[in-house]
Specification:
The complex is a heterodimer of chains A (417) and B (244). Chain A has 417 residues and is of the alpha/beta class. Helices cover 50% and strands 9% of the residues of chain A. In chain A, strand 7, helix 19 and strand 8 form a beta-alpha-beta unit. Chain A is globular. In chain A, 56% of the residues are buried. The radius of gyration of chain B is 20 Å and the shape is globular. Chain B starts with a helix and ends with a helix. Chain B has one domain: Up-down Bundle (Fumarate Reductase Cytochrome B subunit). Chain B has 244 residues and is mostly helical. In chain B, helix 1 packs parallel to helix 7, helix 2 crosses helix 9 and helix 4 crosses helix 5. Classes of the chains: A alpha/beta (417), B mainly alpha (244). Chains A and B meet through helix 2, helix 4 and helix 7 of A and helix 1, helix 2, helix 3 and helix 9 of B.
Chain lengths: 417, 244
């Protein structure tokens, strides 16, 4: 009988051992180096919200190294493996999924651990231990059925265009540019205008561009977040094959999560660099604005910009959105912690599926600060962030408008009301 | 002096150093073997030498990120690591890696201060900061962190080594046999030469504790002294790759 009161099947122990065996050399060095100093804890949005020690990032490294040593430690090699207990599994699951995968702990860690990758590995471990939270498991099942995490039919992927003025969404066999819409933009009403805005900008700039329509699959980020990296590879392979079949030179996406997947994860997942360049739409926007190919009227609204974690800290795009916004307003404000140090909005890491109350309380902090700074508009460049802010404004009744940067530009161009 | 204590002390300075070196070497081999037996990485960025050095200096040596977050904690960790660095540097003189003459250009007073006065202050600083770090860990335990047993053992071992080391300096020396003035770890290569007669008992316990410290390093969190160079180097290179 394992300590913790419940006997785990040897099958789970074996699966756990197999997954622990996937921990890479660098990750193991990071786990061995972690001094459990708690310097990351104070900046963790999840911990700050709950004050639950299990949600502290450093605690997760303690849990992971304990489990690793039970299967691969020095004493294990001499005297045999130890069983992972149900209590350990439950605590790891609680810890791992109460995290927005924002990577902020990496920016507090003196050793610069690549925590985002460590926590993804922890989720894979939890998945192998069959302890993934029910809502996340359901979401992963929906992905399998419909190629999107929202459980909607693939043929409704372009329905957003019916609700906008995009009468004839182009789906070409070949094009120079492909717009990868992403599931949260395509299926969530609050983001339909973001898709329309990006399409309008591409149209306005005379690009030879196409949508992927119902053939577009999820980028695979939710699978990775659910601890199913192997499944995410199928999405990567499908999307790359589709985009390459259209001979596109550039893939533009307005979603920070899709951007990071397409740009940084796909090459390692498919084992080669795809034959196209990946841009976030804000990079395209920046390129068009700074080269004078796109001109918009400058206003004086007080706009505050929120860096999406996957775009800024984890994607390196910090300067471009600010320079683009400076073409729109003379009054660009900043959060106290911004750029690569930006505080998460709570919209990532499938936190909504696990603990929506925590997500809303995290977003409230950002909204409170934006309002306190006198911002009239809160602007981001990620549909998940926009969704979190829209939900937060509705929940807490803040007096602030929430936009995606592309919507603002489209409004200035007069193509969006 | 009791014959048993005398033999124990002889063991500390004549036999234990060989065991220390052997256990440390075996421990490091096991540790490296542990890392090498893990899966290969696929996501590592191309290493950039200048960025790696930059992040090692800024983040690990100067604790830049901690400074930005919390000045009091920064002062504590910086003073702790700074005092360890200073004390280790001072010990290197005993191993003849540098000589007191490097301070000659700054005058007699400076040489005296650097060789005899500053080390005592460094010792106090190490004791106080190690104690405060232990208190901090204890206070945050189960609130913000979850320590492994070796997190505590490492700090306690260091604290004891620092206390007996300080005692060795502060308590008056007894008459000691001349042969203990050299502690031989590897004959001709790693030999500690003592130029001042230390307090006999405190000295031997300090020799024991520091050797336990070295023995424990490969198996404990002390390993971060070595690996703390690798991880910020990868982090710096990654940021360079992302153009942040």
């Amino acid at each position: 009988m394992a300590q913790g009161g419940k006997n785990l099947t040897s099958n789970i122990q074996e699966k756990a051992k197999e997954t622990l065996g996937k921990i890479t050399r660098r990750q193991l060095i990071e786990l061995d180096t972690c001094s459990h100093c708690a310097l990351c804890t104070e900046k963790c949005p999840a911990y700050n919200e709950s004050k639950n020690v299990l949600h502290a990032p450093g605690v997760r490294t303690s849990q992971m190294v304990k489990l690793y040593d039970k299967k691969y430690g020095f004493w294990t090699r001499l005297f045999g493996e130890k069983e992972i207990t149900q209590k350990e599994i439950d605590e790891l699951a609680e810890s791992t999924f109460h995290c927005s995968l924002c990577g902020r702990c990496m920016e507090s860690c003196p050793f610069g651990f690549q925590t985002h990758e460590l926590w993804v590995m922890a989720r894979e471990l939890v998945d192998s231990l069959e302890a993934t939270p029910e809502n996340v498991t359901r979401l992963a099942d929906l992905m399998d059925e419909n190629m999107n995490p929202y459980g909607l039919e693939p043929d409704t992927r372009l329905d957003w265009s019916f609700f906008t003025d995009l009468d004839d969404a182009p789906e070409l066999d070949e094009a120079e540019v492909a717009y990868f819409v992403g599931c949260t933009t395509a299926y969530k009403g609050a983001n339909h205008e973001v898709a329309f805005a990006i399409c309008s900008i591409l149209e306005n700039q005379g690009e030879n561009w196409t949508l992927l329509g119902e053939d577009e699959w999820c980028c695979g980020a939710p699978s990775i977040m659910a601890g199913k990296e192997e499944e995410a590879k199928q999405y990567a392979e499908h999307n790359v094959e589709l985009l390459e079949s259209k001979k596109v030179k550039r893939v533009i996406t307005g979603c920070a999560g899709c951007y990071r997947m397409l740009k940084f994860e796909y090459p390692s997942m498919i084992g080669r660099k795809p034959d196209f360049e990946v841009l976030h739409a804000v990079q395209y926007l920046h390129e068009q604005l700074t080269t004078g190919k796109l001109e918009v009227k400058k206003g004086n609204e007080k706009i505050i910009y929120h860096d999406p974690c996957e775009l800024g800290r984890l994607g390196g795009i910090i300067r471009e959105p600010r320079e683009a916004l400076q073409h729109i307003t003379t009054e660009l404000l900043e959060f106290d912690e911004h750029g690569y140090d930006s505080k998460c909005c709570g919209g990532g890491g499938l936190l909504q599926a696990v603990d929506n109350e925590m997500r809303l309380n995290i977003v409230k902090e950002k909204l409170d600060e934006a309002v306190a700074k006198g911002a009239e508009m809160l602007v981001s460049a990620c549909p998940a962030c926009k969704l979190a802010f829209v939900d937060g404004v509705r929940e807490f009744k803040h007096e602030i408008e929430v936009y995606d940067i592309h919507e603002l530009i489209a409004k200035r161009l007069g193509v969006l009301d | 002096m009791n014959g048993m204590v005398s033999s124990l002390y002889t063991f500390f300075v004549e036999t234990l150093p060989y065991i220390t070196i052997a256990v440390f070497a075996i421990g490091m081999i096991l540790r490296v073997q542990r890392w090498l037996s893990a899966s290969k990485d696929h996501h590592n960025p191309e290493m950039d030498f200048l960025e790696s050095i930059k992040y090692i200096i800024l983040d690990v040596m100067l604790f830049r990120k901690t400074y930005k977050r919390d000045k009091v904690t920064w002062l504590l960790v910086f003073a702790f690591h700074g005092s360890i660095g200073g004390i280790l540097f001072g010990h290197m003189r005993g191993f003849h890696l540098w000589s007191a003459s490097i301070f000659d250009p700054f005058g007699h007073w400076m040489a005296e201060f650097m060789i005899h006065t500053l080390p005592v202050y460094m010792g106090w600083l190490l004791i106080v900061t190690t104690f405060l770090l232990l208190v901090r860990r204890f206070r945050l335990e189960d609130k913000q962190l979850s320590s492994l047993t070796n997190d505590y053992i490492a700090l306690i071992l260091l604290l004891i080594a620092a206390i007996v080391g300080q005692g060795m300096r502060l308590f008056p020396p007894e008459t000691v046999p001349t042969e203990i003035y050299d502690v031989v770890f590897i004959p001709r290569y790693i030999v500690l030469h003592l130029e001042v007669v230390p307090s006999y008992h405190w000295f031997h316990w300090h020799v024991l504790m520091t050797q336990l410290f070295v023995i424990y390093t490969p198996f404990s969190k002390f390993i971060h002294v070595l690996t703390g160079i690798i991880t910020p180097a990868i982090y710096g290179s990654r940021r360079k790759e992302l153009d942040i």
